[in-house]
Amino acid sequence: MPCTQPTPNYTAPPESRGYLLAHTNGGLNQMRAGICDMVAIARIINATLVVPELDKKSYWQDSSNFSDVFNEDHFINALANDVKVIKKLPMEMSGATKADKYFKSWSGMDYYQGEIASMWADYKVILAAKTDSRLANNNLPADIQKLRCRACYEALCFAPQIEAMGKLLVDRMRSYGTYIALHLRYEKDILAFTGCTHGLSPAEADELKKIRDANDEWKVKDIDPREQRSKGFCPLTPKEAAIFLSALGYPSNTPIYIAAGEIYGGDSYMDDLRSRYPMLMSKEKLASIEELEPFANHSTQLAALDYILSVESDVFMPTYSGNMARAVEGHRRFLGHRRTISPDKKALVRLFDKIEQGIKKEGKLLSDKVIERHKKRYVFLSTL
């Protein structure tokens, strides 16, 4: 049974007791997950959900509104049998006192039906100040889980202009043949967040540390870059991604779409990957400046294009197991178990270090070892 199909016991939404406002936070996929949670929470506490506000203050500083990224009307209509959703808080409620609440992380039904729902006695409007990972996945009733699934895969579609550009880019990418979408998470923000500096110059490592120290939420945890990498917590570098794909047997003429923002260090760090796989494509190579202009300076909208090309790819490989990787892999499973490669970074780092030290060489022995290690980590090679 599809995860979106309600059980026979599912009923129409009960009468609303008030309004739920939500301020999302994080990048595209963190916000998507938060929005789906807010849909479920609105159902649990019998609330009318006001279309959530997207994050405009985090690292990405994107001014996009909900309707710039998602199809707002479709979102409202698709959830009509589940939760009442409106675009704006009614005028008569604009002056109402709001319960500004940070929902407790990983809370379940008891918390929302108890502590949160009890707030209706004193308030008509509850504001969820943040939405990231606020609903526990465990022990939710089947119909609440299915509602989250419907919100994610049926209701939360991208805005028409993003869908159209995404389809255009997919068609252009397919003109080169079956392709890999490589989510190369070698960007300034993730390197600063994870504290990963392998292969960087001292000046670059210092720049990333300053970015990390400037973020109140990131700086609270001391990080040893070497320990991070040895435990497999760092994104693969472009060079490591190239060695890995070669070891898996992907030929040099394989088209690869780089699903990423600006790669830290630019071309200097992309040379090793490009030398092995010259058919590297990106949004900027597949479309003209004029075609991408409507999305320029809007990181969330650009990330949505990467999301579409990643979901539609023949093979998807993330180099870091973050929000994007999990969201795309889940969407690909929903669409029919499309092939996703999940690198065993902890094991790979040891191999990469031995190659750097000259202890091991690339070739059939290394390839056999990598393939054997990853047999259970993805549906094995058949189309590329």
Outline the structure in words:
This protein has 384 residues and is of the alpha/beta class. It has 2 domains: 18-157, Rossmann fold; 161-186 and 235-373, Rossmann fold (3-Layer(aba) Sandwich). Helix content is 43%, strand content 8%. It has 17 helices and 9 strands. The chain has a 5-stranded parallel β-sheet with strand order 3-2-1-5-4. Strands 8-7-6-9 form a 4-stranded parallel β-sheet. Helix 11 links the parallel strand 7 and strand 8. The model is unreliable at 379-384 (pLDDT under 50).
Largest sheet: 5 strands, parallel
User: How far is the first residue's CA from the last residue's CA?
Assistant: 31 Å
How many runs of DSSP E, i.e. beta strands?
9
CATH topology of the largest domain: Rossmann fold
Residue stretches low in confidence (pLDDT < 50, at least 5 long) are 379-384
Number of helices: 17
CATH architecture of the largest domain: 3-Layer(aba) Sandwich
CATH class of the largest domain: Alpha Beta
Biggest β-sheet: strands ordered side by side in the sheet = 3-2-1-5-4
**In total, how many domains does the architecture comprise?**
2
What string, H for helix and E for strand, traces the elements in order? EHEHHEEHEHHEHHHHEHEHHHEHHH
The radius of gyration over CA amounts to 22 Å
Helix content: 40-55%
Strand content: 5-15%
Overall average residue pLDDT: 91
Q: Which of globular, elongated, flat, extended, rod-shaped describes the shape?
A: globular
Membrane topology: Single-pass type II membrane protein
Pathway: Glycan metabolism
Subcellular location: Membrane
Protein name: O-fucosyltransferase family protein
